[in-house]
């Protein structure tokens, strides 16, 4: 019984080591794309082809970012391995939002007002 246990243990160990070596060899040769997220959306492999998000137009429509794994349904023509910039259609009902790829098309917002100390800004802040 003791010899049978040792033989079975040796066979299981050999099989386990063999499978681990094979898995490591296969994973070392695969060229997996980096996982893109909002945290690395500014790096070249993940940067949105439509440009960086966050720009708003004068109508208050702002560009947003979609990345793989964000939980939202992507637009079918998008590359599912990189982040994308989009905005929501203002004319769509709130119960059925429509995502439009790219930056908002409206004119840019006006510049902020000048700093007037103690009125609209505090000195030193």
TrEMBL record:
- What's in the keyword line of the UniProt record? Signal
**Protein source organism:** Mycolicibacterium rhodesiae (strain NBB3) (Mycobacterium rhodesiae)
Secretion signal, residue range per the UniProt entry: 1-32
According to UniProt, the name of this protein is Intersectin-EH binding protein Ibp1
State the organism's lineage.
Bacteria, Bacillati, Actinomycetota, Actinomycetes, Mycobacteriales
